[in-house]
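QA checklist item 7 of 12: single-chain prediction sanity check.
[x] sequence parsed
[x] length recorded as 173
[x] structure emitted
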Amino acid sequence: MDRVARAPLVFLDVDDVLCLNDPYGGMDVISPRPPADLHRRLFHRPAVEALCAIVEEHRPVVVMTTSWIRILDRGDVEDLFARTGLASVARALHPTAWQAPAGPGQTRLQAIEAWLAKHHRGEALVVLDDTFSGTGLAGSRLDAAGRVILCELQVGLHAGHLEVVRRALGATV
């Protein structure tokens, strides 16, 4: 029996992947009086372009791993993405298990592994995180398998990462 092809998974952090916190960051998103240009300047344009290219090319299901999910619910995330040029990413959020939050004292790797243990069905995957908040990812089995991109602080996701994403999403786990 042929296996049904499943959409690949993208585990997505925000800080230092999409948002370089220059000039705005997560606290500006929840401010009662956000800056007028917040949605235009919140996310780094090269990161937005790279993420949109990933979604267009691979049609993945997105799972949020960012600490922003502590302050934003799914509707807030979808609205924010729609306002910042990431509507395709909002539409790609996993229908039910859209987040993989880290519990107290838990690393990002542990949060992702817990999500995978519950929901993974062999889909190809990639983790987009950064060198600071991506705790436990460097040197992990996912990293060794070429499935982790740790963006540099104040640089974020960019077109130079796309080939690694293509390799990671081109094979099942």
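[x] summary fact logged: The chain has one domain: 9-169.
[ ] second reviewer sign-off
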